[in-house]
Amino acid sequence: MTANHLKTRCPWTGDDPLMVQYHDEEWGVPVHDDQKWFEYLVLDAFQAGLSWKIVMQKREALRQVFYGFDPAAAARMSDAEIESAIRDQRIIRNRLKIRATVDNARAFLKLQQEHGTFDAFIWSFTKGKTVHNRFKRLNQLPAKTSLSDAVSKALKGAGFHFVGSTICYAFLQAGGIVNDHLESCFRYPELRVRKRFTPPENLPFL
Asked: What is the pTM of this model?
């Protein structure tokens, strides 16, 4: 048995290699790259009504369809490109989610213009500080919080779609604004020791 198998991790990973890798290397790691933020925004929107495992299986195909999750490229997608994506059997063929991705890319670019970076905007909700929860069991994790409510309201006001509070909470967990690894998970203490991010001054949500 390898050392990796001996590690205690959050039980939602199961034994699926993609889920284990995502948990060990990405989930809860603080993000400060706008393209990565857009990727998580797309993936969480596509997860609505589905399992995260399905999204992980479709991730690389979604990356290809949406130009490497480059928001500027996704924002320029034509009606013909959108229809082509809707016919693409490799991805989750949901017309509303695909069109929402393009609309969200355009809203994302507007937030970048207004705040310098999307990263500065999203971290301003916690003043650059990760919320480290102390959960012992999966059933203690909330579906949404007052923080995700505030983020959802702001994103909806900025023209985003598929950004309800539950989706936003998953988004905040993914990007490390919230650390929801269980206390027993080997990643929990590792993420607690990361340095705090200091956002730019004069942001409206501080």
From this structure: 0.91
Give residue-wise pLDDT tens across range 19-43.
999 999 999 999 999 999 999 999 9
Interior angle at CA 25, CA 19 and CA 27, nearest 5: 70
Q: How far apart are CA 193 and CA 74, in angstroms?
A: 35
Residue 203 lies in a domain: no
Compute CA distances 191 → 58, 75, 90, 195, 205, whole Å: 27, 33, 34, 9, 25
Mark 104-136 as b/e (b = at least 16 C-beta within 10 Å): bbbbbbebbeebebbbbbbbbbbebebeebebe
Bridge-partner residues for 179, per DSSP?
132
CA 123 to chain centre: 13
Has residue 131 been placed in a domain?
A: yes
Q: 203: which residues sit within 8 A by CB, 6+ positions away?
A: 115, 120, 121, 124
Residue numbers of the domain that contains 87: 13-192
Count of domains forming the chain: 1
Rg, Å, the chain Cα set: 17
- What three-state secondary structure class fits 178? strand
Give tens-digit pLDDT for 162-192: 999 999 999 999 999 999 999 999 999 999 9
